[in-house]
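hiii so um. not sure if this is the right channel but i have a protein structure encoded as tokens and i wanna go backwards to a sequence. like what aa goes where. can anyone help
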């Protein structure tokens, strides 16, 4: 139920001690008796109640538009939240793939490097063995040379000619040992790091490429294919009963109207009742809730003929 609007206490903006008593449609302003006498005698004047009710109805229409815009904003907000959630999931998955690829390459590089280290260890053992053999051979040659040299010195220091002839015959016929018989290895393996370019790394690791963003909530495009007009100032509720039949109501008119929809709208029936909400049942009956009432009513096909007086209350 709407509250009563007080219209007889609005002070005049020009004559401070006077109250406005009319509305001047010509000037689109409230006026008091003195305003009328001074400059509004021949203007289109109307009662404040009438104009106030008109403006209230227009405000209701504007408020309804604000409500519609707010609903659209809520839908848009849900789309933003949905897109945000999906993009965060997409971004987290992307980072996960990068980390997995990084770990995969690290593991493969580690295996490759391990193989190189094992090959190097084998090569080191080969070279070390060669060095050890060379060291041993050289040491043996040194001992032999020292011993022979010592023997020759003893002969040279003696005064026996027989020892000289004997030593000369022994040492001149034999070749002096040479420590360079076993040469060092001439070849081994070295590690040559690849001087890869960024392109090589890109081919190895991967790259970031353009792709479509994750889809948010579907964009619904509504096209008006046909519109209808009723004598209601606003249709607040509509209930489709079948392809050709619907029920409509207005918050400010105590009327539930059944309409036939063809090329135009035809009124089939008016039931004098103030509807709060309505829905259709499986049996195609109409379930109603009434304003200022806690009852729920059922309107059947049979009861439509006798109007609301036959509604069952539950």
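sure thing!! here u go:
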């Amino acid at each position: 139920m709407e509250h009563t609007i007080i219209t007889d206490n609005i002070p005049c903006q020009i004559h401070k001690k006077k109250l406005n008593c009319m509305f001047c449609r010509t000037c689109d302003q409230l006026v008091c008796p003195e305003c009328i006498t001074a400059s509004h005698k021949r203007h289109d004047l109307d009662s404040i109640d009438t104009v106030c009710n008109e403006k209230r109805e227009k405000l209701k229409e504007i408020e309804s538009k604000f409500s519609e815009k707010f609903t659209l904003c809520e839908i848009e907000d849900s789309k933003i939240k949905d897109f945000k959630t999906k993009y965060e999931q997409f971004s987290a998955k992307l980072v996960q793939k990068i980390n997995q690829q990084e770990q995969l390459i690290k593991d493969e590089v580690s295996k490759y490097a391990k193989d190189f280290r094992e090959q190097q260890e084998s090569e080191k053992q080969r070279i070390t063995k060669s060095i050890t053999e060379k060291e041993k051979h050289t040491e043996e040659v040194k001992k032999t040379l020292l011993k022979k040299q010592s023997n020759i010195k003893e002969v040279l220091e003696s005064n026996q000619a027989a020892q000289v002839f004997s030593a000369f015959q022994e040492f001149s016929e034999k070749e002096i040992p040479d420590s360079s018989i076993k040469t060092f290895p001439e070849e081994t393996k070295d590690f040559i790091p690849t001087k890869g370019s960024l392109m090589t790394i890109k081919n190895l690791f991967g790259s970031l490429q353009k792709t479509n963003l994750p889809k948010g909530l579907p964009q619904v495009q509504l096209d008006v294919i046909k519109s209808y007009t009723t004598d209601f100032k606003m249709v607040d509720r509509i209930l489709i009963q079948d392809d050709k039949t619907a029920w409509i109501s207005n918050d400010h008119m105590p009327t539930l109207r059944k309409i036939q929809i063809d090329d135009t709208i035809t009124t089939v029936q008016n039931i004098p009742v103030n509807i709060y909400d309505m829905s259709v049942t499986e049996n195609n009956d109409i379930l109603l809730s009434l304003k200022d009432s806690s009852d729920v009513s059922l309107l059947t096909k049979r009861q439509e003929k006798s109007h609301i007086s036959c509604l069952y209350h539950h």
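oh and The longest strand covers residues 253-261.
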